[in-house]
Amino acid sequence: MTPTATPDPTTTITNPPPSTITIKANEPSTLDVSVGPQHPGSGHFRMVIRVDGDYIVSVDPDIGYVHRGCEKIAEYRTSVSNIPHLERPCIIDAIHLNWAYVLPIEELQRVVVPPRGQYISTIAAEMNRIMSHLYWLAINAGVFSGHTTIFMYAFGDRDLFIELAEMLMGARLTYSFLPPGGPRRDLPTGFKERLLKLLDYFEQRLVEYDRIFFSNPLIIARAKGIGVITRDEAIKLGLVGPNLRASGVKYDVRKVEPYGAYQDLDFDIPTFQEGDSYSRFLVRFHEMKESIKIIRLALEKIPKGPVARKAPLVIPEGEAAGRVESSRGELAYLVMGDNSDKPYRVKIMNGSFRSLIALPYLLQHVHIGDMPIIYGSLDYWPVEADR
Amino acid sequence: MTQTPSREQALLDKLRTQFQDAIKESKVEGAHRVLVDFERTKFLDLAKFMRDELGIDHVKGIAGVDFPTRKIIEVLYFTGSYSKPELEDLIVVLKAQLPRDTPTISSAVSIWESAHFHERETFEMFGVKFEGHPDLRKLLTLDNWEGPPPMLKDIKFPEMAQR
Question: pTM to 2 decimals?
């Protein structure tokens, strides 16, 4: 595409952009550039940005390159065989996708998971949160800001957690660990000791991460004050999770609607007021510290007893919505049952799809060079958003 | 949870007094859920009241559900509040029933901007027309998808069935 002196309507976006944007339509000095959908670390995701020199004037996200019709397929599968299927949209955060799907089914079936099962799920979920944040730190924060050392560090350390996840759940990424009724397995022998040892090591590593990345003047210069969402804007756009908490809204499903063992465990919700890319970085960094705290507490307090109860295959008639705090924020599933073993309707409301609205908002009037940092700071996961 | 006389009930009472004829059914479902079944023509007034008077400030998601036998498409708005701490654990589900042959409802984008992409998705998947949406076009399916809205129950993909 070349800059056009006289605007040709066929080369410009014909649809009006989202309502947050006011653009100077058909400005002769602007140029439309397609970003994606190849995979420069961002996932298969495309947006059409309109640039004026080095500045982005408007953004039109064009998603759906990894849309697989998860919700439609779920209507053809039984309640249990949906578990491996519905955790696929975000494999690096599989436990949360699994858990949020199972919560409404358990509610409809009136199955209560025993306390030990709740604790094991909580431990697994917090391990998964650390793994997911490490993945984000490696790719979305590290690679996108050109910091290859943190990419190697975070990916290396993530693998240690993956090994322990395999020990507990039998798979490295897609665990299918929580069928209705409770986790599939109890903690294996020696798991607790290995996990505690790993947490001690990882706590030291976080100090190192802070030194080389989060306190690095270059990273601060790249991310601080870039891509600011104020508190009111974050509420208006309905952001979730770390992106919301970076803008000063202390909202976490683990606190507002506790599930699993979270009401017995004492932890903080890291919240920042600035709302810029750097505070979104910091929220996730401090969340990893809180996850360490939660796992230690849970391992200490875990009660004895059965792990799971038997749950029927049939989903009773009715509808229920369950939600968890996934690594990308509030994740809710609506499950409708009609007294058969297949759900009548499954609706996934996830953090990535809800972060999408922030992109056209944040990328307006910024340098093209700031685009990767802003995109990375949102921890947008295209597959989860597309479903 | 033992609130007296339950903030959910208080919230519903306010809605009922304001919109007596527009609300068909409203109930508290469990500890953190409220369901309001309303007449679709009054949606914008209801949404505006909920945002301005009750503090319901964002949409978490919009679920379309197709009921071919009852000849309706249900649209469920999952809404919540970030700014009111006493309501933050609630999910207020607004349910509208639209006729299956002409599923139209006013767009909530002018009131809750967070509904933007959710409405686009529901438009694409269920054919629900959100009147007044600033940018109602396809989002997830392929550009060359010419078929009917794929999430409708009479669109069947037998090859997806479990083998």
Answer: 0.86
